[in-house]
Request: fold
Amino acid sequence: MAQSITRVGLLAALHKPQAVESALRLVQTLREAGVEVRLEPRMATLGLEEAEVTDTWSSESQLVIAMGGDGTFLAAARAAAPAGVPLLGVDLGAFGFLAEEDFEQTLALLPALLRGEFRLEERLMLEARILADGESGKPLHALNDLVISRVYALRMARVKVWVNGEFVTTYPADGLIIATPTGSTAYNLSAGGPLVDPVVPCLVLMPICAHTLYTRPLIVPAEAEIRLLAEEMRAQEHTEMHVVADGQVHADLRPEEEVRVTAAPFRARLVQTGHRCFYSRLRDKLHWDSES
Reply:
């Protein structure tokens, strides 16, 4: 028997008036249903007395709802996934692949969702650790991708890559994307990388604007350990580099610091309502032909 949902965490894109208006309506609807609502701290600006603003808005909820575009969804995923909390995306963006429903559909489905009547799909996430002097720092996590690139787009980077301890190549490029199957429709796609069904257990290594004619994307197993080292172009010159998670969280990368990338020890648990599959999203977003 499905477990009823009595605690919901909420994150909305505050820069989008439609998302704010929809969030206010959703909070009211949830409270009328007797559900506790917990808001991400930045949402305190809404002044909602009916909901609690707390740092544990995701980890102590039974369901997290993200309202906005893919950026809002990614931020919510990184917050909810470590605690294993299911995530539902409400699509209020222009070109999002991740959110499951629009707002009116979400309201219509809400009674069933609160009864726990939904299917979950687990998605691979990434973990990156920067090794400095043999010690690893705080990990970065990503649902879509990790990118190692120059901070300022002035000079080419050279990124050395090892997979499971074996040297692969040195990419002379603007940077390197490591994408999950979920993230294959994001930066990876824009850079010319392959589209991957999100349930396929793999990672994509995609150089950004490679300065060679023979460089191609590389697909490796999901359980692979990837090591990255950015070379200095000249002995007297350091091209500033950083590692960026989902285009939102970054960490500076100093000379000779190594980045180790693996699958995260947890998965994102995405609520699936069955209305749109991966391939129908591709047809809609990429304007592919429909079945004749």
